[in-house]
Amino acid sequence: MSWQAIQQAKKLLATEKGALVRDWGGKLPLVLTYANSYAVGMSSLAMHSLYHWFNGIPGIACERSFAWLSKSPKPSSPPVTLESQRPLREAAVLAVSLSFEMDYFNLVSMLRQAGIPLRAAEREEGVPLVILGGPAVSANPEPLALLADAVVVGELEPVLNQLANILVERLPEGRARTLDALSALPGLYVPSRYHGQSIQRLLQPNLDEFMVASTVRCPQAEFGDLHLIEISRGCEHACRFCLAGCWYLPQRERSLDQIMQQVEFGVKNGQRIGLVAAAVSDYSRMEELLDRTSALGARLSVSSLRMNTLTDKLLAALAASGERTITLAPEAGSERLRQGMHKGINQDDILRAARMTAQYPFEVIKLYFMVGLPGETEGDLAELVRLTGLVRRNSGHNVIVNITPFVPKAHTVWQRQAMAPTDELNAAYNWLRNACAAERITLRAESVRESVTQALLARGDRTLGELMLTLDHPSGSSLAKAAQIRGLDLATYLGAKGVGEGLPWQFIKGTQR
Fold first, then answer.
1. CATH number of domain containing 430
2. From CA 168, how far away is CA 161, in angstroms rounded?
């Protein structure tokens, strides 16, 4: 173990409030693993909720581990658990939360550094069982199928207690018995026990049965000053490009009373309240929620806003809470493209929202757009710049444009669409940079290269996954180089898929497309 990693873990643990340091004696040690930094991981409600749920189950001692504890740089030393600073290999189970495809590389590095065999088939008795979950790997487990002992497909809540019981009762009997039992659970994909059957996505109908909110105060996390609360899950709009919107259908809401219990807890601890949902402004009892949070003196922050459900009361509450940036996502500049993606908003909605913000002391409006959308032309890019100028004039605020390439994702309506070629994306980026510079608009752009890698992993199969496991230093560039050496044409993963063409994830039954 690295002395530096141990000291970093101790220092971080000392900054937290609510962490549980438990004796492993007589309990199954389960390490909740996030394949990114501590700052990012502890801003994930999945980490908070899983930590609370697993530690509430008799027979389990749950700790946390991260790919690296400092914000940068990534360490070369083996990761340790945060609570007791033990090597990952001493755990019985690694429960890995994967929200983003790019974290697959980090997970491979973590296991290698921890001395845990990368391939599930090579893990012997006494080596941790590796169970994966999260929207990215749930939607398409195949790039990590050789690495995973099991994958939770969808939402964990419906099988949480059954899964925990199997781990506690069966793991002492051996890996084989444990994997047999896990494969019999609905929504559990166990690659070594898979025989061609469909795996149905798990769905939690009643959100109130499991609270999802911050459980540990983490000042060093990205949203460390917020008490985060999930108010709904899923999105009724189901835009054709959106994995989160399609994967978590149907939309479900948490009761106002349960939300308010968490608001009161956060206010009592002197924290701002972070409301989390696919579109916070869509919550059906938002007016009541705002009245009750205001009565408590709560300061609010939100994860996202939808322009056609934005209200003056919500904007006033955000302004009063000290928020100075409003984030809106038109996704496309032209009406034609927004209709094509089923966005459900038009230019009037966007400009109405801009005019509403003019009444409040916000300083910046961030606008999010995608580039490389199906059917996109230079005229659509020109519309993006024109729309940005209209938002600036109607709001009176500074405007920052954020662009990212369209990445086709499994289980979305556009899962069979092609990703735009790299040269076309770079040309669109250059055109927008020049056009925005001429209009004195600040432009921020996500890396085209990283977006292409994300698309490869989102649409990948076991062949791509096997290649990833051979990399000494896993990354998008090393994956591309290894593919070239082996003669694997990565372009086949990025092109359009015919209606009758098989997809790596087609055995996963999520939303019907």
1. 3.40.50
2. 11
